[in-house]
Design a protein that fits this description.
By secondary structure, this protein is an all-alpha fold. The protein has 22 helices and no strands.
Length: 402
């Protein structure tokens, strides 16, 4: 077999019928490497396509028009229909066999067969995008489109203009996928029931609603409750509405980016967003991002803010050698407690080229004695359960010290 795959295999080997017949039964695609004569040998080609239907591509032009050969190929792999002759692509029995094996074979059938409802329907119900290959008459057939929309709402895009304006069909589509709203008429995009159904399924369907409905408070509430990011499609007034914005950020904290400037400066609103997603912190107002008390509070409710908090920048000083021994001694608690949690982030951000300085802070007993002797804590238990509480308190010591 390997010998036949080599481009420079001896002609006598590539033309040896007995050898080739044996080999293509194991790997039909070997037909590519055999002699021109054997690619026109009916028995050899039949053996090849029965093992792998795609071998039809290497068969002679005449055999790609042989009904028995092509039928064997598409029975093994329906997509082999692509390499059949145009005459056999019009053969209903061959095409049905191909589609039965793989519905995607419909795209290679003749235009006449792609207009037969009973042949097309099973395929498009399985793969809705195949609607783009069927006749315009079937894309205007209400039964066909309805059957497909019950499984794939976005298939509305392939329906005729008249059916995309059919209210019942559009409702069926948006119940399955709210984003199908984009394919309907201007009138139905202003239909309150249709839009409510769409945004209930997918909040971002709000993008395709009429301007009036994008300012409708009830519609907006349902949209942002489904997908907080839908806040971006609301009116300027509603993006300044505290209740609407709060609903959005509870679903997706990153929706804070679409809130009004005033609300991005609101501590409670930002904390709500950060609690849901630490990545919302960068979208808070500059004043809040520079408020160390607020940053500690953010860490308290979502420890992942450690990767977005401005206190990470403090470690830049380590790289520049600005932290002296006195600072390390005074803040050994802070450095040690944060070491394990920060190390990955620090290393990834390449903030510290030489992290050896953190490795020096390893004596937990010494740390414990330091904290107790300096009345930092009444007690300290080093374990995962209270680690975040300890880090929170030490952040306070570091940031809020006079």
């Amino acid at each position: 077999m390997e010998d036949l795959q080599k481009r420079k295999a001896p002609e006598e080997l590539r033309g040896n019928r007995e050898v080739v017949l044996n080999v293509v039964q194991q790997d039909g695609l070997i037909l590519k490497y055999v002699s021109v004569e054997l690619r026109g040998d009916r028995e050899v080609v039949l053996a090849a396509v029965r093992q792998n239907g795609y071998a039809l591509i290497y068969a002679s032009f005449e055999l790609r028009g042989d009904r028995e050969v092509v039928l064997a190929a598409v029975t093994q792999n329906g997509l082999a229909l692509e390499y059949a002759s145009n005459k056999l692509k019009k053969n209903k029995e061959v095409v049905c066999a191909a589609i039965e094996q793989n519905s995607l074979a419909l795209q290679y059938a003749s235009e006449e067969l792609r207009a037969i409802k009973e042949l097309v329907l099973p395929a498009v119900q399985k793969y809705s995008f195949l609607l783009k290959y069927v006749s315009s008459e079937l894309r205007a057939d209400r039964d066909v489109i309805l059957a497909v929309l019950q499984n794939y709402g976005l298939a509305l895009s392939y329906a005729s203009k008249e059916l995309r304006e059919d209210r019942e069909l559009v409702l069926t589509a948006v119940r399955k996928n709210g984003l199908a709203l984009q394919y309907t008429s201007k009138e139905l995009k202003a239909d309150r029931e249709v839009v409510l159904t769409a945004v209930h399924n997918h909040g971002n369907a709000l993008e395709y609603a009429s301007l009036e409905l994008r300012a409708d408070r009830e519609v907006i509430f349902i949209a942002v409750h489904s997908n907080g990011g839908a806040l971006q499609y609301t009116s300027k007034e509603l993006r300044a509405d505290r209740i609407v914005v709060s609903t959005a950020i509870q679903q997706n904290g990153l929706s804070l980016i679409y809130a009004s400037e005033e609300l991005r400066a609101d501590r409670i609103v930002v904390l709500t967003a950060v609690k849901q997603n630490s990545l919302a912190l960068p979208y808070a107002s500059e004043e809040l991002k520079n408020d160390k008390t607020f940053l500690i509070e953010c860490y308290r409710i979502n420890t992942d803010t450690i990767y977005h908090n401005k206190f990470i920048e403090e470690f830049d000083k380590l790289e520049n050698g600005l932290f002296n021994d006195t600072f390390i001694i005074e803040n050994i608690d802070f450095l040690n407690l944060l070491k394990n949690q920060l190390l990955a982030a620090i290393h990834q951000r390449k903030i510290i080229k030489n992290i050896g300085i953190l490795d020096l802070i390893t004596n937990k007993k010494q740390l414990y004695e330091y904290l107790i002797n300096n009345n930092k804590f009444d007690s300290l238990f080093w374990n995962e359960k209270n680690k975040n509480d300890i880090i929170y308190n030490i952040l306070q010591l570091l940031y809020l010290k006079k």
